[in-house]
Amino acid sequence: MQHFKTYFSMNLPFHGDEVLIEGPISPNRIKELDFHEDLTSFRPPLEQKEALIEIAELPEGRINVICDNQMIVGYVTFVYPDPLERWSEGKMENLIELGAIEIAPKYRGAKLGKHLLQFSMKDEAMEDYIIMTTEYYWHWDLKGSGLDVWEYRNMMEKMMNAGGLIWYATDDPEICSHPANCLMARVGNRVSQESMQQFDQIRFQNRFMY
């Protein structure tokens, strides 16, 4: 499967000024940009920047970012699922994972996450994919947001819905380990019924729950 990456960008108003959404961006572009010091949800900032560069180098890897001048203040990643997780077991070329989305705390509350996802799905290439994401409460910034686990889950679900991702059932043990965890996905309009059946088989591996 060919992975088409057509760069585009748009400006967004933010507190009387503007920020730029752009992508999918190249590894060199990421290297050129500064990385906000408060983007720490998954790794320390410098390590996360390196991780984004590595993803951008992959054939299927896509990084879309929000920039304030020359600084990345938000990002979303799309990449094949981790080889150690069940989502990679079918070796589906058209199943990619929204692996991470993060907005620096100072830039939250302006719906930038929703705009970033909507921007990502405007890319025509996304219609060839099933885009999935696994939401785990232990990755959520409950302390910084002041929200409880269900309020945060509701916020995350609304943000994902803005990108066309909806809730899907699964018997995956890690997701089932807490009721706030969930699987969400968006099915592109060029995805075949055969691919959907394969995705269903990955979602349910306990035949009594299928």
Automatic annotation (TrEMBL):
Gene Ontology MF terms in the entry: acetoin dehydrogenase (NAD+) activity; acyltransferase activity, transferring groups other than amino-acyl groups
UniProtKB keywords: Transferase
GO biological process: acetoin catabolic process
InterPro entries: AcuA, Acyl_CoA_acyltransferase, GNAT_dom
Ranges where the N-acetyltransferase domain occurs: 23-161
Pfam families in alphabetical order: Acetyltransf_1
Top-rank lineage group of the source organism: Bacteria
Protein name per Swiss-Prot or TrEMBL: Acetyltransferase
Organism field: Halalkalibacter hemicellulosilyticusJCM 9152
Lineage of producing organism: Bacteria, Bacillati, Bacillota, Bacilli, Bacillales
